[in-house]
Amino acid sequence: MNTNMTYLVTGAAGFIGSALAKRLLIEGNKVITIDNLSTGFETAIPEGVEFFKGDCQDYSIVKQLEKYSFDAIFHIAGQSSGEISFDDPVYDLQTNAQSTLLLLKLALKTNCKKFIYASTMSVYGDQPDHKVNEEAMLKPKSFYGVGKVASEHYLRIYQQYGIQSTAMRLFNVYGPGQNLKNLRQGMVSIFLAMALNDKTICVKGDKNRFRDFVYIDDIVDAFINSLELNTPVFKIYNVCSGIKTTIETLINSILSNIQKNINVEYSGSTPGDQFGIYGDNTLIKKDLNWSPKISFMEGISNMVNWASNLK
Amino acid sequence: MNTNMTYLVTGAAGFIGSALAKRLLIEGNKVITIDNLSTGFETAIPEGVEFFKGDCQDYSIVKQLEKYSFDAIFHIAGQSSGEISFDDPVYDLQTNAQSTLLLLKLALKTNCKKFIYASTMSVYGDQPDHKVNEEAMLKPKSFYGVGKVASEHYLRIYQQYGIQSTAMRLFNVYGPGQNLKNLRQGMVSIFLAMALNDKTICVKGDKNRFRDFVYIDDIVDAFINSLELNTPVFKIYNVCSGIKTTIETLINSILSNIQKNINVEYSGSTPGDQFGIYGDNTLIKKDLNWSPKISFMEGISNMVNWASNLK
After folding, report:
1. Residues A106-133: what's their mean pLDDT?
2. Which of A142, B12, B299, B300 is deepest in the core (most CB within 10 A)?
3. Do A101 and A195 have their domain in common?
4. What residues have CB less than 8 Å from B301, skipping those under 6 apart?
5. Nearest CB neighbour to B146, from listed A138, A141, A154
6. Does residue A283 sit in the same domain as residue A260?
Protein backbone atom coordinates (compact mmCIF):
# COMPACT_ATOMS: atom_id res chain seq x y z
CA MET A 1 0.00 0.00 0.00
CA ASN A 2 0.96 3.66 -0.28
CA THR A 3 2.63 5.47 2.59
CA ASN A 4 2.92 9.13 3.54
CA MET A 5 -0.73 9.63 2.76
CA THR A 6 -3.23 11.62 4.80
CA TYR A 7 -6.42 9.84 5.78
CA LEU A 8 -9.54 10.74 7.68
CA VAL A 9 -10.85 7.78 9.66
CA THR A 10 -14.07 8.74 11.45
CA GLY A 11 -14.80 6.78 14.59
CA ALA A 12 -11.21 5.89 15.53
CA ALA A 13 -12.25 5.47 19.17
CA GLY A 14 -14.45 2.57 18.14
CA PHE A 15 -13.68 -1.08 17.47
CA ILE A 16 -13.20 -0.99 13.69
CA GLY A 17 -12.05 2.61 13.31
CA SER A 18 -9.36 2.12 15.94
CA ALA A 19 -7.96 -1.00 14.26
CA LEU A 20 -7.97 0.65 10.83
CA ALA A 21 -6.31 3.84 12.12
CA LYS A 22 -3.62 1.78 13.82
CA ARG A 23 -2.82 -0.07 10.61
CA LEU A 24 -2.68 3.11 8.55
CA LEU A 25 -0.31 4.68 11.08
CA ILE A 26 1.95 1.64 11.13
CA GLU A 27 2.20 1.84 7.34
CA GLY A 28 3.56 5.37 7.69
CA ASN A 29 0.53 7.53 7.03
CA LYS A 30 -0.99 10.52 8.78
CA VAL A 31 -4.42 9.85 10.32
CA ILE A 32 -7.04 12.31 11.50
CA THR A 33 -10.23 11.29 13.27
CA ILE A 34 -13.58 12.62 14.41
CA ASP A 35 -15.20 10.72 17.24
CA ASN A 36 -17.94 11.73 19.69
CA LEU A 37 -16.84 9.11 22.25
CA SER A 38 -20.50 8.15 22.70
CA THR A 39 -19.64 4.45 22.54
CA GLY A 40 -15.93 4.50 21.77
CA PHE A 41 -13.08 5.21 24.16
CA GLU A 42 -10.47 7.92 23.90
CA THR A 43 -7.89 5.36 24.99
CA ALA A 44 -8.69 3.32 21.88
CA ILE A 45 -7.59 6.13 19.57
CA PRO A 46 -4.09 5.07 18.51
CA GLU A 47 -1.27 7.37 19.55
CA GLY A 48 -0.36 9.74 16.78
CA VAL A 49 -3.88 10.19 15.45
CA GLU A 50 -5.11 13.81 15.38
CA PHE A 51 -8.39 13.79 17.24
CA PHE A 52 -11.43 16.05 16.80
CA LYS A 53 -14.07 15.39 19.42
CA GLY A 54 -17.62 15.69 18.16
CA ASP A 55 -20.31 14.40 15.85
CA CYS A 56 -19.76 13.80 12.14
CA GLN A 57 -23.30 15.14 11.63
CA ASP A 58 -22.23 18.44 13.20
CA TYR A 59 -21.14 20.92 10.57
CA SER A 60 -19.10 22.98 13.05
CA ILE A 61 -16.88 19.93 13.64
CA VAL A 62 -16.60 18.76 10.05
CA LYS A 63 -15.79 22.29 8.90
CA GLN A 64 -12.62 22.26 10.99
CA LEU A 65 -11.24 19.56 8.69
CA GLU A 66 -11.38 21.73 5.59
CA LYS A 67 -7.73 22.66 6.15
CA TYR A 68 -6.61 19.10 5.36
CA SER A 69 -6.01 17.51 2.01
CA PHE A 70 -7.16 13.92 2.42
CA ASP A 71 -6.06 11.15 0.11
CA ALA A 72 -9.10 9.21 1.25
CA ILE A 73 -11.90 9.45 3.77
CA PHE A 74 -12.90 6.31 5.66
CA HIS A 75 -16.30 6.96 7.22
CA ILE A 76 -16.56 4.37 9.98
CA ALA A 77 -18.24 6.39 12.76
CA GLY A 78 -21.91 5.98 13.57
CA GLN A 79 -24.24 4.24 15.93
CA SER A 80 -23.78 0.61 14.93
CA SER A 81 -26.49 -1.45 16.57
CA GLY A 82 -29.80 -2.34 14.94
CA GLU A 83 -31.34 -2.86 18.36
CA ILE A 84 -30.18 0.50 19.75
CA SER A 85 -31.48 2.32 16.66
CA PHE A 86 -35.00 1.66 17.94
CA ASP A 87 -34.29 3.84 21.00
CA ASP A 88 -33.93 7.04 18.99
CA PRO A 89 -34.48 6.66 15.23
CA VAL A 90 -33.99 10.38 14.57
CA TYR A 91 -30.54 10.33 16.18
CA ASP A 92 -29.75 7.24 14.18
CA LEU A 93 -30.66 8.96 10.92
CA GLN A 94 -28.40 11.85 11.81
CA THR A 95 -25.44 9.76 12.88
CA ASN A 96 -25.70 7.29 10.01
CA ALA A 97 -26.95 9.38 7.06
CA GLN A 98 -26.63 13.10 7.73
CA SER A 99 -23.00 12.50 8.72
CA THR A 100 -22.30 10.97 5.31
CA LEU A 101 -23.73 13.99 3.53
CA LEU A 102 -21.46 16.34 5.47
CA LEU A 103 -18.40 14.21 4.87
CA LEU A 104 -19.10 13.89 1.15
CA LYS A 105 -19.40 17.65 1.01
CA LEU A 106 -16.06 17.87 2.83
CA ALA A 107 -14.54 15.51 0.26
CA LEU A 108 -15.83 17.69 -2.56
CA LYS A 109 -14.59 20.88 -0.95
CA THR A 110 -11.13 19.52 -0.17
CA ASN A 111 -10.76 17.73 -3.49
CA CYS A 112 -10.60 14.29 -1.92
CA LYS A 113 -11.36 11.73 -4.63
CA LYS A 114 -11.84 8.60 -2.56
CA PHE A 115 -14.50 7.83 0.03
CA ILE A 116 -14.77 4.45 1.72
CA TYR A 117 -17.82 3.74 3.80
CA ALA A 118 -18.58 1.21 6.53
CA SER A 119 -21.95 -0.08 5.44
CA THR A 120 -23.54 -3.22 6.81
CA MET A 121 -25.28 -6.48 6.04
CA SER A 122 -28.23 -4.93 7.91
CA VAL A 123 -29.19 -3.20 4.66
CA TYR A 124 -30.47 -6.58 3.40
CA GLY A 125 -33.01 -7.47 6.05
CA ASP A 126 -34.41 -10.98 5.84
CA GLN A 127 -33.41 -12.78 2.67
CA PRO A 128 -34.01 -16.26 1.28
CA ASP A 129 -31.72 -18.89 2.83
CA HIS A 130 -28.81 -18.67 0.42
CA LYS A 131 -25.70 -16.51 0.15
CA VAL A 132 -26.87 -12.95 -0.40
CA ASN A 133 -25.08 -10.97 -3.09
CA GLU A 134 -24.81 -7.23 -3.63
CA GLU A 135 -27.71 -7.15 -6.12
CA ALA A 136 -30.31 -8.31 -3.60
CA MET A 137 -33.35 -6.16 -2.92
CA LEU A 138 -32.77 -4.11 0.23
CA LYS A 139 -35.30 -4.49 3.04
CA PRO A 140 -33.59 -3.25 6.22
CA LYS A 141 -35.38 -4.21 9.41
CA SER A 142 -33.86 -1.57 11.67
CA PHE A 143 -33.57 2.21 11.56
CA TYR A 144 -29.82 1.64 11.60
CA GLY A 145 -30.08 -0.29 8.34
CA VAL A 146 -32.20 2.46 6.76
CA GLY A 147 -29.59 5.14 7.51
CA LYS A 148 -26.91 2.96 5.92
CA VAL A 149 -29.04 2.44 2.80
CA ALA A 150 -29.51 6.21 2.51
CA SER A 151 -25.76 6.75 2.83
CA GLU A 152 -25.05 4.24 0.07
CA HIS A 153 -27.38 6.15 -2.23
CA TYR A 154 -25.57 9.39 -1.35
CA LEU A 155 -22.24 7.83 -2.32
CA ARG A 156 -23.67 6.76 -5.66
CA ILE A 157 -25.07 10.24 -6.33
CA TYR A 158 -21.73 11.86 -5.49
CA GLN A 159 -19.85 9.84 -8.10
CA GLN A 160 -20.98 12.46 -10.64
CA TYR A 161 -18.69 14.93 -8.84
CA GLY A 162 -15.65 12.75 -9.43
CA ILE A 163 -15.58 11.16 -5.97
CA GLN A 164 -15.09 7.42 -6.17
CA SER A 165 -16.88 5.78 -3.29
CA THR A 166 -16.92 2.24 -2.01
CA ALA A 167 -19.51 0.85 0.39
CA MET A 168 -18.19 -2.05 2.41
CA ARG A 169 -21.16 -4.08 3.63
CA LEU A 170 -19.64 -5.52 6.77
CA PHE A 171 -21.13 -8.74 8.08
CA ASN A 172 -20.72 -9.72 11.76
CA VAL A 173 -17.38 -8.28 12.78
CA TYR A 174 -15.66 -9.63 15.89
CA GLY A 175 -12.26 -9.86 17.49
CA PRO A 176 -9.93 -8.37 20.07
CA GLY A 177 -10.74 -4.74 20.77
CA GLN A 178 -14.51 -5.20 20.60
CA ASN A 179 -16.36 -3.51 23.43
CA LEU A 180 -17.20 -6.08 26.10
CA LYS A 181 -19.10 -3.54 28.19
CA ASN A 182 -21.83 -2.91 25.62
CA LEU A 183 -24.32 -5.74 25.89
CA ARG A 184 -26.45 -4.46 23.01
CA GLN A 185 -23.87 -4.34 20.21
CA GLY A 186 -21.82 -7.11 18.65
CA MET A 187 -23.08 -10.65 18.87
CA VAL A 188 -19.75 -12.29 19.70
CA SER A 189 -18.71 -9.68 22.26
CA ILE A 190 -22.11 -9.82 23.98
CA PHE A 191 -22.07 -13.59 24.41
CA LEU A 192 -18.41 -13.62 25.39
CA ALA A 193 -18.89 -10.90 27.99
CA MET A 194 -21.86 -12.76 29.47
CA ALA A 195 -19.88 -15.97 29.61
CA LEU A 196 -16.90 -14.38 31.32
CA ASN A 197 -18.82 -12.13 33.71
CA ASP A 198 -22.06 -13.89 34.52
CA LYS A 199 -21.42 -17.54 33.77
CA THR A 200 -24.75 -17.47 31.90
CA ILE A 201 -25.27 -16.58 28.26
CA CYS A 202 -28.78 -15.16 27.74
CA VAL A 203 -29.65 -15.41 24.06
CA LYS A 204 -32.47 -13.19 22.84
CA GLY A 205 -33.79 -15.25 19.94
CA ASP A 206 -33.54 -18.63 18.29
CA LYS A 207 -30.36 -20.74 18.38
CA ASN A 208 -30.88 -21.67 14.72
CA ARG A 209 -30.46 -18.09 13.56
CA PHE A 210 -27.30 -17.73 11.53
CA ARG A 211 -24.67 -15.16 10.68
CA ASP A 212 -21.49 -14.69 8.73
CA PHE A 213 -18.59 -13.78 11.01
CA VAL A 214 -15.51 -11.84 9.93
CA TYR A 215 -12.44 -11.23 12.05
CA ILE A 216 -11.33 -7.66 12.66
CA ASP A 217 -7.93 -8.05 10.96
CA ASP A 218 -9.64 -9.26 7.80
CA ILE A 219 -11.96 -6.26 7.91
CA VAL A 220 -8.97 -3.93 8.11
CA ASP A 221 -7.40 -5.74 5.15
CA ALA A 222 -10.56 -5.18 3.12
CA PHE A 223 -10.56 -1.45 3.85
CA ILE A 224 -6.88 -1.18 2.95
CA ASN A 225 -7.35 -3.12 -0.29
CA SER A 226 -10.23 -0.85 -1.29
CA LEU A 227 -7.72 2.00 -1.62
CA GLU A 228 -6.28 0.26 -4.67
CA LEU A 229 -9.57 0.20 -6.55
CA ASN A 230 -9.06 1.90 -9.88
CA THR A 231 -12.47 2.94 -11.20
CA PRO A 232 -14.50 6.15 -11.28
CA VAL A 233 -17.76 4.45 -10.28
CA PHE A 234 -19.42 3.68 -6.98
CA LYS A 235 -18.80 0.13 -5.78
CA ILE A 236 -20.49 -2.05 -3.18
CA TYR A 237 -18.88 -5.11 -1.61
CA ASN A 238 -20.00 -7.74 0.84
CA VAL A 239 -17.20 -8.14 3.37
CA CYS A 240 -17.95 -11.62 4.58
CA SER A 241 -16.66 -15.17 4.83
CA GLY A 242 -19.42 -16.79 2.80
CA ILE A 243 -19.82 -19.27 5.65
CA LYS A 244 -23.11 -19.74 7.48
CA THR A 245 -22.61 -20.13 11.21
CA THR A 246 -25.52 -20.69 13.58
CA ILE A 247 -25.86 -18.97 16.93
CA GLU A 248 -25.56 -22.39 18.52
CA THR A 249 -22.22 -22.99 16.79
CA LEU A 250 -20.98 -19.58 17.88
CA ILE A 251 -21.88 -20.27 21.49
CA ASN A 252 -20.32 -23.73 21.43
CA SER A 253 -17.14 -22.23 19.99
CA ILE A 254 -16.97 -19.68 22.78
CA LEU A 255 -17.67 -22.33 25.42
CA SER A 256 -15.03 -24.70 24.06
CA ASN A 257 -12.44 -21.97 24.60
CA ILE A 258 -13.47 -21.21 28.17
CA GLN A 259 -12.57 -23.62 30.95
CA LYS A 260 -15.68 -22.91 33.00
CA ASN A 261 -19.24 -24.12 33.44
CA ILE A 262 -21.50 -21.73 31.56
CA ASN A 263 -25.30 -21.87 31.34
CA VAL A 264 -27.02 -20.94 28.10
CA GLU A 265 -30.60 -19.63 28.16
CA TYR A 266 -32.70 -18.82 25.11
CA SER A 267 -35.65 -16.41 25.34
CA GLY A 268 -37.40 -13.50 23.66
CA SER A 269 -36.12 -11.66 20.62
CA THR A 270 -34.37 -8.43 19.59
CA PRO A 271 -36.06 -5.57 17.70
CA GLY A 272 -34.90 -5.38 14.09
CA ASP A 273 -33.09 -8.72 14.30
CA GLN A 274 -32.58 -10.57 11.02
CA PHE A 275 -33.26 -14.30 11.34
CA GLY A 276 -30.39 -15.41 9.25
CA ILE A 277 -27.97 -14.03 6.75
CA TYR A 278 -24.69 -14.94 5.16
CA GLY A 279 -22.99 -13.39 2.22
CA ASP A 280 -21.57 -14.07 -1.19
CA ASN A 281 -18.01 -12.69 -1.35
CA THR A 282 -17.34 -13.43 -5.01
CA LEU A 283 -17.16 -9.77 -5.94
CA ILE A 284 -14.70 -8.60 -3.27
CA LYS A 285 -12.46 -11.61 -3.96
CA LYS A 286 -12.32 -10.69 -7.62
CA ASP A 287 -12.11 -6.87 -7.47
CA LEU A 288 -10.11 -6.33 -4.27
CA ASN A 289 -8.15 -9.55 -4.20
CA TRP A 290 -9.45 -10.06 -0.70
CA SER A 291 -10.46 -13.14 1.18
CA PRO A 292 -10.63 -13.73 4.92
CA LYS A 293 -7.42 -15.17 6.36
CA ILE A 294 -8.54 -15.95 9.89
CA SER A 295 -10.84 -18.94 10.30
CA PHE A 296 -13.78 -18.69 12.67
CA MET A 297 -12.22 -21.21 15.09
CA GLU A 298 -8.92 -19.33 15.17
CA GLY A 299 -10.62 -15.97 15.50
CA ILE A 300 -12.83 -17.02 18.39
CA SER A 301 -9.84 -18.58 20.14
CA ASN A 302 -7.84 -15.34 19.73
CA MET A 303 -10.73 -13.27 21.02
CA VAL A 304 -11.39 -15.44 24.07
CA ASN A 305 -7.68 -15.33 24.95
CA TRP A 306 -7.65 -11.57 24.59
CA ALA A 307 -10.80 -11.12 26.68
CA SER A 308 -9.67 -13.54 29.38
CA ASN A 309 -6.42 -11.64 29.81
CA LEU A 310 -8.30 -8.36 30.26
CA LYS A 311 -9.78 -9.57 33.49
CA MET B 1 -65.91 7.00 1.80
CA ASN B 2 -66.31 7.53 5.52
CA THR B 3 -67.33 10.89 6.92
CA ASN B 4 -66.92 12.49 10.33
CA MET B 5 -63.39 11.28 10.54
CA THR B 6 -60.39 13.23 11.77
CA TYR B 7 -57.41 13.39 9.44
CA LEU B 8 -53.97 14.91 9.56
CA VAL B 9 -52.89 16.11 6.13
CA THR B 10 -49.38 17.54 6.31
CA GLY B 11 -48.55 20.15 3.69
CA ALA B 12 -52.09 21.44 3.08
CA ALA B 13 -50.68 24.75 1.83
CA GLY B 14 -49.07 22.88 -1.06
CA PHE B 15 -50.47 21.71 -4.37
CA ILE B 16 -51.40 18.12 -3.48
CA GLY B 17 -52.04 18.58 0.24
CA SER B 18 -54.42 21.45 -0.43
CA ALA B 19 -56.46 19.47 -2.95
CA LEU B 20 -56.64 16.44 -0.69
CA ALA B 21 -57.61 18.49 2.36
CA LYS B 22 -60.37 20.19 0.37
CA ARG B 23 -61.83 16.86 -0.70
CA LEU B 24 -61.73 15.45 2.82
CA LEU B 25 -63.50 18.55 4.14
CA ILE B 26 -66.18 18.38 1.45
CA GLU B 27 -66.86 14.79 2.44
CA GLY B 28 -67.61 15.98 5.97
CA ASN B 29 -64.40 15.25 7.82
CA LYS B 30 -62.24 17.23 10.18
CA VAL B 31 -58.81 18.10 8.82
CA ILE B 32 -55.71 19.29 10.65
CA THR B 33 -52.52 20.33 8.90
CA ILE B 34 -48.89 21.18 9.56
CA ASP B 35 -47.23 23.35 6.94
CA ASN B 36 -44.09 25.48 7.10
CA LEU B 37 -45.24 27.69 4.19
CA SER B 38 -41.75 27.39 2.71
CA THR B 39 -43.15 26.71 -0.75
CA GLY B 40 -46.90 26.54 -0.09
CA PHE B 41 -49.27 29.43 0.49
CA GLU B 42 -51.44 30.04 3.51
CA THR B 43 -54.24 31.05 1.12
CA ALA B 44 -54.14 27.54 -0.37
CA ILE B 45 -55.09 25.95 2.96
CA PRO B 46 -58.81 25.26 2.59
CA GLU B 47 -61.08 27.13 4.96
CA GLY B 48 -61.99 24.99 7.93
CA VAL B 49 -58.63 23.23 8.20
CA GLU B 50 -56.90 23.60 11.57
CA PHE B 51 -53.44 24.91 10.78
CA PHE B 52 -50.18 24.44 12.69
CA LYS B 53 -47.38 26.46 11.20
CA GLY B 54 -44.00 24.75 11.30
CA ASP B 55 -41.86 21.87 10.14
CA CYS B 56 -42.93 18.25 10.37
CA GLN B 57 -39.33 17.45 11.32
CA ASP B 58 -39.68 19.72 14.36
CA TYR B 59 -40.71 17.77 17.43
CA SER B 60 -42.08 20.86 19.20
CA ILE B 61 -44.64 21.22 16.39
CA VAL B 62 -45.55 17.56 16.01
CA LYS B 63 -45.95 17.20 19.76
CA GLN B 64 -48.82 19.71 19.72
CA LEU B 65 -50.86 17.20 17.73
CA GLU B 66 -50.77 14.55 20.41
CA LYS B 67 -54.14 15.82 21.67
CA TYR B 68 -55.89 14.59 18.49
CA SER B 69 -57.12 11.14 17.68
CA PHE B 70 -56.49 10.74 13.97
CA ASP B 71 -58.29 8.15 11.85
CA ALA B 72 -55.45 8.46 9.39
CA ILE B 73 -52.35 10.52 8.77
CA PHE B 74 -51.60 11.65 5.22
CA HIS B 75 -47.98 12.76 5.12
CA ILE B 76 -47.76 14.96 2.03
CA ALA B 77 -45.46 17.77 3.25
CA GLY B 78 -41.83 17.92 2.22
CA GLN B 79 -39.52 19.56 -0.23
CA SER B 80 -40.64 18.00 -3.50
CA SER B 81 -38.08 18.82 -6.17
CA GLY B 82 -35.19 16.58 -7.13
CA GLU B 83 -33.33 19.58 -8.49
CA ILE B 84 -33.79 21.71 -5.36
CA SER B 85 -32.62 18.84 -3.14
CA PHE B 86 -29.11 19.43 -4.48
CA ASP B 87 -29.08 22.91 -2.87
CA ASP B 88 -29.22 21.56 0.69
CA PRO B 89 -29.19 17.76 0.98
CA VAL B 90 -29.20 17.86 4.79
CA TYR B 91 -32.39 19.92 4.87
CA ASP B 92 -33.89 17.55 2.34
CA LEU B 93 -33.13 14.55 4.53
CA GLN B 94 -34.80 16.26 7.46
CA THR B 95 -37.91 17.37 5.59
CA ASN B 96 -38.38 14.11 3.72
CA ALA B 97 -37.19 11.43 6.16
CA GLN B 98 -36.85 12.78 9.70
CA SER B 99 -40.40 14.19 9.39
CA THR B 100 -41.73 10.71 8.65
CA LEU B 101 -40.09 9.31 11.77
CA LEU B 102 -41.71 11.95 13.96
CA LEU B 103 -45.13 11.45 12.38
CA LEU B 104 -44.94 7.67 12.70
CA LYS B 105 -44.10 8.15 16.35
CA LEU B 106 -47.12 10.46 16.63
CA ALA B 107 -49.29 7.77 15.01
CA LEU B 108 -48.05 5.23 17.53
CA LYS B 109 -48.58 7.55 20.48
CA THR B 110 -52.09 8.60 19.42
CA ASN B 111 -53.13 5.10 18.40
CA CYS B 112 -53.61 6.04 14.76
CA LYS B 113 -53.59 2.84 12.70
CA LYS B 114 -53.31 4.21 9.19
CA PHE B 115 -50.51 6.20 7.60
CA ILE B 116 -50.55 7.22 3.95
CA TYR B 117 -47.42 8.65 2.49
CA ALA B 118 -46.70 10.73 -0.61
CA SER B 119 -43.72 8.93 -2.08
CA THR B 120 -42.46 9.47 -5.60
CA MET B 121 -41.35 7.89 -8.85
CA SER B 122 -38.00 9.53 -8.05
CA VAL B 123 -37.19 6.52 -5.86
CA TYR B 124 -36.60 4.51 -9.06
CA GLY B 125 -33.92 6.57 -10.79
CA ASP B 126 -33.12 5.51 -14.32
CA GLN B 127 -34.76 2.27 -15.31
CA PRO B 128 -34.86 0.21 -18.51
CA ASP B 129 -37.30 1.61 -21.08
CA HIS B 130 -40.43 -0.26 -20.02
CA LYS B 131 -43.18 0.32 -17.48
CA VAL B 132 -41.57 0.25 -14.06
CA ASN B 133 -43.36 -1.75 -11.38
CA GLU B 134 -43.12 -1.59 -7.61
CA GLU B 135 -40.58 -4.43 -7.39
CA ALA B 136 -37.91 -2.58 -9.36
CA MET B 137 -34.50 -1.99 -7.79
CA LEU B 138 -34.38 1.52 -6.33
CA LYS B 139 -31.60 3.80 -7.55
CA PRO B 140 -32.70 7.37 -6.76
CA LYS B 141 -30.68 10.03 -8.54
CA SER B 142 -31.49 12.93 -6.23
CA PHE B 143 -31.22 13.54 -2.50
CA TYR B 144 -34.98 14.04 -2.59
CA GLY B 145 -35.43 10.49 -3.86
CA VAL B 146 -33.14 9.12 -1.14
CA GLY B 147 -35.21 10.72 1.63
CA LYS B 148 -38.35 9.19 0.17
CA VAL B 149 -36.72 5.74 0.01
CA ALA B 150 -35.73 6.06 3.67
CA SER B 151 -39.29 7.02 4.60
CA GLU B 152 -40.71 4.00 2.80
CA HIS B 153 -38.42 1.75 4.81
CA TYR B 154 -39.59 3.44 8.01
CA LEU B 155 -43.22 2.74 7.11
CA ARG B 156 -42.39 -0.92 6.55
CA ILE B 157 -40.57 -1.16 9.89
CA TYR B 158 -43.50 0.44 11.70
CA GLN B 159 -45.98 -2.17 10.49
CA GLN B 160 -44.79 -4.33 13.39
CA TYR B 161 -46.43 -1.81 15.73
CA GLY B 162 -49.84 -2.29 14.10
CA ILE B 163 -49.71 0.79 11.89
CA GLN B 164 -50.78 0.00 8.33
CA SER B 165 -48.90 2.25 5.97
CA THR B 166 -49.24 2.86 2.28
CA ALA B 167 -46.61 4.56 0.14
CA MET B 168 -48.09 6.21 -2.93
CA ARG B 169 -45.33 6.59 -5.51
CA LEU B 170 -46.65 9.62 -7.34
CA PHE B 171 -45.49 10.10 -10.91
CA ASN B 172 -45.58 13.58 -12.53
CA VAL B 173 -48.52 15.32 -10.91
CA TYR B 174 -50.01 18.37 -12.63
CA GLY B 175 -53.20 20.40 -12.74
CA PRO B 176 -54.92 23.54 -11.52
CA GLY B 177 -53.50 24.74 -8.23
CA GLN B 178 -49.90 23.93 -9.11
CA ASN B 179 -47.46 26.69 -8.23
CA LEU B 180 -46.68 28.70 -11.37
CA LYS B 181 -44.19 30.91 -9.55
CA ASN B 182 -41.74 28.09 -8.79
CA LEU B 183 -39.68 27.48 -11.90
CA ARG B 184 -37.76 24.58 -10.36
CA GLN B 185 -40.62 22.28 -9.35
CA GLY B 186 -43.27 20.59 -11.49
CA MET B 187 -42.52 19.97 -15.12
CA VAL B 188 -45.93 20.99 -16.47
CA SER B 189 -46.24 24.10 -14.31
CA ILE B 190 -42.71 25.24 -15.20
CA PHE B 191 -43.26 25.00 -18.95
CA LEU B 192 -46.73 26.51 -18.72
CA ALA B 193 -45.52 29.43 -16.63
CA MET B 194 -42.70 30.09 -19.10
CA ALA B 195 -45.13 29.95 -22.02
CA LEU B 196 -47.58 32.36 -20.41
CA ASN B 197 -45.06 34.78 -18.93
CA ASP B 198 -42.05 34.78 -21.21
CA LYS B 199 -43.31 33.51 -24.56
CA THR B 200 -40.27 31.20 -24.52
CA ILE B 201 -40.08 27.74 -23.02
CA CYS B 202 -36.50 26.95 -21.99
CA VAL B 203 -36.14 23.19 -21.61
CA LYS B 204 -33.20 21.96 -19.57
CA GLY B 205 -32.58 18.59 -21.16
CA ASP B 206 -33.54 16.42 -24.09
CA LYS B 207 -36.96 16.59 -25.77
CA ASN B 208 -37.05 12.80 -26.01
CA ARG B 209 -37.05 12.38 -22.26
CA PHE B 210 -40.35 10.94 -21.11
CA ARG B 211 -42.65 10.96 -18.13
CA ASP B 212 -45.96 9.63 -16.87
CA PHE B 213 -48.37 12.45 -16.07
CA VAL B 214 -51.25 12.21 -13.59
CA TYR B 215 -53.88 14.85 -13.03
CA ILE B 216 -54.37 16.24 -9.54
CA ASP B 217 -57.98 15.02 -9.16
CA ASP B 218 -56.88 11.49 -9.93
CA ILE B 219 -54.13 11.77 -7.32
CA VAL B 220 -56.70 12.83 -4.73
CA ASP B 221 -58.88 9.87 -5.70
CA ALA B 222 -55.96 7.53 -5.17
CA PHE B 223 -55.29 8.88 -1.68
CA ILE B 224 -58.98 8.63 -0.79
CA ASN B 225 -59.21 5.06 -2.08
CA SER B 226 -56.19 4.05 -0.04
CA LEU B 227 -58.26 4.60 3.10
CA GLU B 228 -60.30 1.55 2.20
CA LEU B 229 -57.33 -0.78 2.10
CA ASN B 230 -57.96 -3.66 4.45
CA THR B 231 -54.65 -5.27 5.31
CA PRO B 232 -52.18 -5.10 8.19
CA VAL B 233 -49.13 -4.92 5.93
CA PHE B 234 -47.20 -2.10 4.33
CA LYS B 235 -48.18 -1.45 0.73
CA ILE B 236 -46.53 0.43 -2.12
CA TYR B 237 -48.37 1.65 -5.20
CA ASN B 238 -47.36 3.40 -8.37
CA VAL B 239 -49.85 6.22 -8.92
CA CYS B 240 -49.49 6.67 -12.65
CA SER B 241 -51.25 6.46 -15.98
CA GLY B 242 -49.04 3.80 -17.49
CA ILE B 243 -48.66 6.08 -20.51
CA LYS B 244 -45.28 7.28 -21.74
CA THR B 245 -45.36 10.94 -22.78
CA THR B 246 -42.29 12.68 -24.15
CA ILE B 247 -41.28 16.18 -23.18
CA GLU B 248 -41.89 17.17 -26.78
CA THR B 249 -45.48 15.90 -26.61
CA LEU B 250 -46.04 17.76 -23.36
CA ILE B 251 -44.81 21.00 -24.86
CA ASN B 252 -46.87 20.55 -28.00
CA SER B 253 -49.94 19.91 -25.86
CA ILE B 254 -49.37 23.10 -23.91
CA LEU B 255 -48.76 25.09 -27.09
CA SER B 256 -51.86 23.76 -28.81
CA ASN B 257 -53.93 25.14 -25.95
CA ILE B 258 -52.36 28.60 -26.03
CA GLN B 259 -53.23 30.99 -28.82
CA LYS B 260 -49.83 32.68 -28.90
CA ASN B 261 -46.49 32.35 -30.60
CA ILE B 262 -44.14 30.62 -28.21
CA ASN B 263 -40.47 29.78 -28.76
CA VAL B 264 -39.05 26.54 -27.44
CA GLU B 265 -35.34 26.28 -26.63
CA TYR B 266 -33.54 23.15 -25.52
CA SER B 267 -30.25 23.37 -23.59
CA GLY B 268 -28.32 21.99 -20.65
CA SER B 269 -29.67 19.53 -18.10
CA THR B 270 -31.02 19.35 -14.55
CA PRO B 271 -29.18 17.77 -11.61
CA GLY B 272 -30.73 14.47 -10.59
CA ASP B 273 -33.00 14.35 -13.61
CA GLN B 274 -34.17 10.91 -14.72
CA PHE B 275 -34.03 10.46 -18.47
CA GLY B 276 -37.26 8.66 -18.81
CA ILE B 277 -39.75 6.84 -16.65
CA TYR B 278 -43.31 5.63 -16.82
CA GLY B 279 -45.12 3.31 -14.52
CA ASP B 280 -47.03 0.08 -14.32
CA ASN B 281 -50.32 0.70 -12.51
CA THR B 282 -51.57 -2.88 -12.44
CA LEU B 283 -51.31 -3.11 -8.66
CA ILE B 284 -53.21 0.05 -7.75
CA LYS B 285 -55.95 -0.80 -10.26
CA LYS B 286 -56.40 -4.17 -8.62
CA ASP B 287 -56.01 -3.33 -4.94
CA LEU B 288 -57.50 0.17 -4.77
CA ASN B 289 -59.90 -0.01 -7.69
CA TRP B 290 -58.25 3.11 -9.03
CA SER B 291 -57.49 4.24 -12.51
CA PRO B 292 -56.93 7.75 -13.82
CA LYS B 293 -60.11 9.37 -15.13
CA ILE B 294 -58.71 12.51 -16.72
CA SER B 295 -56.83 12.04 -20.00
CA PHE B 296 -53.62 13.93 -20.58
CA MET B 297 -55.21 16.08 -23.30
CA GLU B 298 -58.17 16.99 -21.09
CA GLY B 299 -55.95 17.64 -18.10
CA ILE B 300 -53.58 19.94 -19.96
CA SER B 301 -56.53 21.81 -21.45
CA ASN B 302 -58.05 22.28 -17.96
CA MET B 303 -54.77 23.48 -16.57
CA VAL B 304 -54.05 25.95 -19.35
CA ASN B 305 -57.57 27.38 -18.96
CA TRP B 306 -57.08 27.71 -15.23
CA ALA B 307 -53.66 29.33 -15.59
CA SER B 308 -54.79 31.71 -18.33
CA ASN B 309 -57.64 32.97 -16.18
CA LEU B 310 -55.25 33.70 -13.30
CA LYS B 311 -53.61 36.40 -15.32
Report:
1. 96
2. B12
3. no
4. B257
5. A154
6. no
